[in-house]
Amino acid sequence: MKNEFNFFHSLRVRFSETDGHGHVFNANYLIYFEVAITEYFRHFNLLNPDYFPEQKPILYVKEVQAKYYQPILFDQEIEIYVRINELRQHSLQFTLEIFFPNNDTLLATGKLIWINIDPVLKVKKEFPVPFIKRIQELN
Predict the structure, then answer these.
(1) CA distances from 129 to 4, 52, 87, 88, 133 (A)
(2) Could you read off the pLDDT of 53-88 as tens digits, one per residue?
(3) Domain ranges of the chain
(4) CATH topology of domain 2-138
(5) For residue range 103-120, what is the model confidence (pLDDT) as tens digits?
(6) Which of 45, 81, 117, 122 has the greatest count of CB atoms below 10 A from its CB?
(7) Cα separation of the two ends of the chain
(8) Interacting residues of 8 by C-beta distance below 8 A, sequence separation 6+
C-alpha cells in the first residue's frame, strides 16, 4: 500500500511504450522501475560523494521480478512507489508498486536486487558505512 513508502515518482505513459493492444509493453515496466529508483537516489542524495569517499559505487542488477495486475494504457499517469526493504553488506533489495494517482488499485509490483561490485577486482564489495547509515535513516 502507498502508505508503506516514503517516495514515489510520477510519469505519463508515452505511445512508444505501448504494444499493439495499447497496453504498456511488459518489458517497459522494468524501465519504469529503473527510472523510479534513479529518482529515489536523486531525491535522497544517495550518490553523494561523502557516502562513497573512495569511488562511486558500481551497482549491478542481480535479480528482477515483476507482477502485473491490471493493464496500464497510453497517456495514463502512474505513480511508481519505491523503498529499500532489505540492506545487506553489499546488496540492496528494492520493492516497487505502481498505482494510478488518487487511486489505491495496485497495477503492478516489482522487486530488484542490486549488488555493489569492486570495479577492479569484479567481486562483491561492502557498502561504505556512511551510505549504510543513510539508508537506515530512510527506513
Answers:
(1) 25, 9, 12, 12, 6
(2) 777 778 999 999 999 999 999 999 999 999 999 999
(3) 2-138
(4) Thiol Ester Dehydrase; Chain A (3.10.129)
(5) 999 999 999 999 999 888
(6) 81
(7) 16
(8) 2, 36, 79, 80, 81, 82
